[in-house]
Write a structure and sequence with these properties.
The protein contains eight helices and three strands. Helix 1 packs parallel to helix 8, helix 3 (about 40-70) crosses helix 4 (about 115-130) and helix 6 (about 155-170) runs antiparallel to helix 8. With about 210 residues, it is mainly alpha-helical. Strands 1-2-3 form a three-stranded antiparallel β-sheet. A hairpin with a 2-residue loop joins strand 2 (about 85-90) and strand 3 (about 95).
């Protein structure tokens, strides 16, 4: 998986003519993340991941509603700028752009753009449905609403695939159970390809 991610990363770099030192940093981060997954217990990681993303998603959902109903209150919060000098309002675990780049506001959590936020939400939903001992209805709803508010086409496609895999996984067929690893590997490969496609051709990135 690490090799695939690094390969896709550098294909994106060369295809877009991006700054190489920045991609060296990203490669380093991926390698660090891979090392982290080796030395850290999977169950502990998933538990902490779910708690963190839940806090960000819940806050983002509330901020999104307030942004639609009472936009004037955001003037009280600090303004931050990204590398393209685009202004955002920083509200606890969420940020909202001062200027809309689409007809409908899109939730982006703490991340650089809604598509990136959707990636973290997709994995949170996957963990909730497949990895957690008991599925929390509250977390599932919060993650799902947050994903919907990103208006990310890639996120919608991937969550649809998750539901398909979930249905297949619920079947009693021993043949499907034996092939679970193949199904999951294919699922993650599709996610990676979709993320690569979005990253490569998304010309409206906030960064």
């Amino acid at each position: 998986i690490t090799l695939i991610l690094v390969t896709i990363l550098w294909l994106s770099c060369f295809a877009n003519g991006e700054n190489i030192p920045n991609y060296i940093y990203k490669t380093f981060m991926i390698i660090c993340a891979a090392t982290f997954t080796i030395i850290y217990r999977r169950e502990s990681f998933i538990d902490k991941y779910q708690k963190i993303i839940f806090a960000i998603a819940a806050c983002s959902n509330i901020v999104y509603v307030l942004y639609l109903l009472f936009p004037e209150i955001f003037s009280r919060f600090p303004t931050i700028y990204n590398t393209r000098d685009i202004a955002f309002k920083f509200v606890f675990f969420s940020i909202m752009p001062l200027r809309m780049y689409s007809p409908i506001p899109r939730s982006m959590g703490l991340f650089r753009e809604p598509g990136v936020f959707s990636v973290f939400l997709v994995f949170a939903l996957y963990f909730e449905l497949f990895e957690c001992r008991t599925t929390s209805i509250l977390r599932f709803l919060v993650f799902s609403i947050a994903l919907f508010l990103t208006y990310s086409t890639t996120g919608y496609i991937v969550i649809t695939l998750i539901m398909i895999v979930l249905l297949l996984n619920k079947m009693d067929s021993q043949r499907l159970k034996r092939k679970r690893n193949i199904i999951e590997f294919t699922f993650f490969l599709i996610i990676i390809l979709l993320l690569y496609y979005t990253d490569l051709f998304n010309i409206n990135s906030f960064v």
